[in-house]
């Protein structure tokens, strides 16, 4: 029997695993946590909307069959010649590999940015951001140093704006609990591009500005970060933003492990795949999610989003099962349903099937997408049990 190994249990990996599990095809999934976390909701955990357990599901709850094995390890490399994945705790031989280790932050060579900022990369880091902000605000009650109350977010794309949306809802409550005046807080998104949220229709962006600035945020576009030193963001033109909390949300790239393992990669480190999502360097390796350099029928690269990652996960599971059964594989074609950006718990902005939406409708659709995802992963069992937490019902 062929040995199948899946590395990474994010949106792509866990969806591939769920499909293979349902089909009763044996495999081993290697992930660095025993839970699958909802990356698209990490801004909620960082912004204090709910406790960490609301944003994860134990992988064992998704994989129910004895034919599925879970190993907790940190993957460090792939030896394609020996067909072995290397981890810190062991090596995992495979006949077929599904590679879905996702993304890491991209710092674009900005001096000191990586060393002197936090970023939302996983559930732990999201919780650390929330705790850090709380500690800074508590420190302010002791020494009244205004820097403790300044939060600088680098980047005003989806992650930066969604995080700001959470903060403008949460920080007033935090201030009230500590006896701090909300007027003394300074929260700014610093964006080098002339606009925010490039993936959202231009005519909707003023709504985002209005919603967030009314609640106390500053959105600074066309403002370039040149360097970050401890507690200080240095801007083009010489301005220094002294902030107790500095969070970078400005970009992602694929795990460097792909380039290090000799795969053909693009400038963001994603590995080239064919239409079946097999590596063009090795047809025993499928690559899915943000790690895959896949193009649509017009040669346009797919965006690094959870909805594409999930669909890729389902597709690689189908293609691997077909390959093992000697049946034809299918070409990957993503169905792009739109983009939704939450602006706190109640409203949002984006598009659904190409139709621009904003306000409570967008907020509700974003909430609904959480249940839909759990349903796809584990049917009524997960959507019912976990849905209550993630929707905070
Ligand atoms: C705050 C935020 C909001 C977002 N909002 C949206 C949204 O609204 N809609 C949308 O479509 N997309 C959104 N995205 C993008 C989306 O989350 C990613 O495109 C998606 O997570 C990619 O899925 P993936 O399976 O490739 O990787 P991931 O989901 O990142 O999964 C990778 C998995 O591999 C594990 N892993 C990583 N390295 C190792 C290692 N060395 N060893 C073992 N395991 C490892 C990780 O723990 C994780 O379980 C958002 C991203 C962020 C950060």
TrEMBL record:
Keywords: FAD, Flavoprotein, Oxidoreductase. It comes from Alicyclobacillus fodiniaquatilis. The keyword Calcium does not apply. It is an enzyme of class 1 (oxidoreductase). It comes from the Bacteria. Residues 3-313 form the FAD/NAD(P)-binding domain. InterPro entries: FAD/NAD-bd_sf, FAD/NAD-binding_dom, NADH-Q_oxidoreductase. This is NAD(P)/FAD-dependent oxidoreductase.
